[in-house]
Design goal:
Length: about 220
Amino acid sequence: MSKTLFYLFTFLPLSLFISCTHDSYEAGDGSYSYLRADFAELKTTSAKLVPEATTDDNERLAFNNPLTVSWAEKGDTTYRALLYYNKVETGSPEPISAFAVPVLRPNTLKDGETLHTDPLTLESTWTSANGKYLNLSLLLKTGVEEGLDARQTIGIVINDVTEQGDGTHHYDLVFYHYQNGVPEYYTSRVYSSIPTSFFKSGDTATLTIRTYQGTVVKDFRF
């Protein structure tokens, strides 16, 4: 493993965030004609209180009635989320709910730490419209067993970094997934985001992910 530390990041334990399978509704005459779901950055003014958000299309949403988000525990903080809201033709958008999206900053393993690559399903990868995040849609197996209080862990491990001839760097990344004994009874969709600000312009990366269908390698340029 590379010993170069770029940013320290403690892998995120998941109480799995289950999201709906749609990203938006078509406009129409029904009661949910303007219901949308967008990836966004939420800005808190105080703990759990979100008066505004900025979508991945760089659209700022100011709410007349701030959204209360139980997991946004710090004030004056920006959180990444999948935001559900009513986008009305006139007036302020109406927030409905928000699900946390884990932000995974690449990191190296500590000495003696085990690299867990338990399988999962990779649905898709894409870069946000504003270029700030590389996003992953994952399907994880999960469940509840009496007497077991365990949570899965995900993260991005830097396996190696190579300097290229033009001064840019190539990152060999591995997706870290620790099932941790959680039963695999059913499937939950989990979104996660890698901040592109970690990389410099011109850097490249390969991300290796172990899936139930075999090893998948994705290539990226920043």
